[in-house]
Amino acid sequence: MIPEGTQPATIHPFKGNIDLGKVEDLLKREGDRVPFGMLTVTNNSGGGQPVSMANIRAYAELLHKYGKPMILDVCRFAENAMFIKLREEGMQDRTPESIAKEMFRLADGCTMSAKKDAMVNIGGFIALKNEKWVEAARNLLILTEGFSTYGGLAGRDLEAMAVGLEEGLHEDYLRYRLRTAEYMGEKLIAGGVGIVRPTGGHAVYIDAKTFLPHLGPQDYPAWSLANALYLEGGIRGVEIGSVMFGKRLEDGTETYSNMELVRLAFPRRVYTQSHFDFAAEVICEVKAKAEQVRGVRIVKQSKYLRHFAAEMAWA
Ligand SMILES: Cc1ncc(COP(=O)(O)O)c(C=O)c1O
Fold first, then answer.
1. Is residue 78 within 8 Å of residue 174, measured between CB atoms?
2. What percentage of the chain has pLDDT greater than the value 70?
3. Distance of CA 54 to the CA centre of its chain
4. Model confidence pLDDT, tens digit, residues 184-209
5. Residue 315 CB neighbours (<10 A)
6. What digits encode the pLDDT tens for the residues 114-138?
7. From the CB of 238, is ligand 1 less than 6 Å away?
8. Using 50, 70 and 90 to split pLDDT, how confident is the model at 10?
9. Where are the domains of the chain?
């Protein structure tokens, strides 16, 4: 039961949509430096939010007008297709598979991290429509992974991926999955925890700024909250905040992100409802003693993508 007043009056159903005006400005200003446009379905760093078919189509048309290919990052293509079915006008009678096919028809290529919607343990692929690009990529593959028939993934893993790509589009599975995120979101909202709304496809994103209001950006609140959840109940989330998007500049000053989120991503076909109930209970217990949670400091960081390898300490 969601308490009154915790839901905003209007919720944008396609928060993952790309801002076409900004893209066009960029293409006009610096188009020469843009080799292609990329669109991620769904948006992982912004709440797992979907992109509408109308936005995918308009983005492809815009890029094509400027002679640029559109490449999709499709690691969550099936969840995005299901959101389109549930939320976009005129799509209700379509299957997720037919919606996904339309998304792929609009694109010139895609990248896929297959451990997401292809439901395999590891691996991925790049798919391209232009034969010349395929040839160039295959040649590079020989240098980096081995010849295309034996390098990279084994045939057995590729077969598992083919099955996963199909099963990942089953409507009953997708309905259950999206409802799971929604269920978890409802529990957290009922417990007074701020989350990104509406809930996305693969995760719930806790707003660490409102969870730990006594911490400032220099305390890396989302990182600190992720630690606290792990210590309290083994809940393993990830920071999507200033460690990920901020920077330490040459002169030692820090830049911070506006977002301080903890992403709780859900592995596919792993957890039962009672796991989610447990996770929500743990989060609410941490909330009850939130003022005791301290900030963290970065002790050591790598030059690039510091959130993968940073070493932290309690402040
Ligand atoms: C949208 C998106 N694209 C790409 C990746 C990269 O996946 P991998 O680590 O399997 O290369 C991720 C990983 O979380 C992701 O969320």
1. yes
2. 97
3. 20
4. 999 999 999 999 999 999 999 999 99
5. 12
6. 999 999 999 999 999 999 999 999 9
7. no
8. low
9. 20-167, 171-314
* Cα 113 to ligand 1 centroid, rounded to whole Å: 6
Give the mean model confidence (pLDDT) for residues 14-38. 97
Q: Is 206 left (phi over 0), alpha (psi -120 to 50) or beta?
A: beta
> Residue whose CA is closest, atom 10 of ligand 1?
113
Q: Does the pLDDT of residue 3 top 60, yes or no?
A: no
Name residue 105's amino acid. R
Whole-number Å distance, alpha carbon 27 to ligand 1 midpoint, is 26
Residue of 41, 45, 116, 119 with the most ligand 1 atoms within 8 Å of its CB, for mutation: 116
Task: Kindly report the protein residue whose alpha carbon is nearest to atom 14 of ligand 1.
Answer: 44
Is the CB of 80 inside a 6 Å radius of any atom of ligand 1?
Answer: no
User: Which DSSP letter does residue 64 get?
Assistant: H
Mean pLDDT, residues 256-269: 96
Answer yes or no: is the C-beta of 45 below 6 A from any ligand 1 atom.
no
Check pocket membership of 113 for ligand 1, CB cut-off 6 A: yes
CATH number of 20-167, picked from 3.40.640.10, 3.20.20.70, 1.20.1250.20, 3.90.45.10:
3.40.640.10
Whether the per-residue pLDDT at 153 is higher than 80: the answer is yes
Q: Which residue's alpha carbon is nearest to atom 9 within ligand 1?
A: 113
Give yes or no on whether 20-167 and 171-314 have one common fold: no
Give the CATH superfamily of 171-314: Aspartate Aminotransferase, domain 1 (3.90.1150.10)
Which residues 6+ apart lie within 8 Å of 195 measured at CB? 185, 188, 189, 204, 205, 206, 207
Does the structure show a pLDDT above 80 at 7?
no
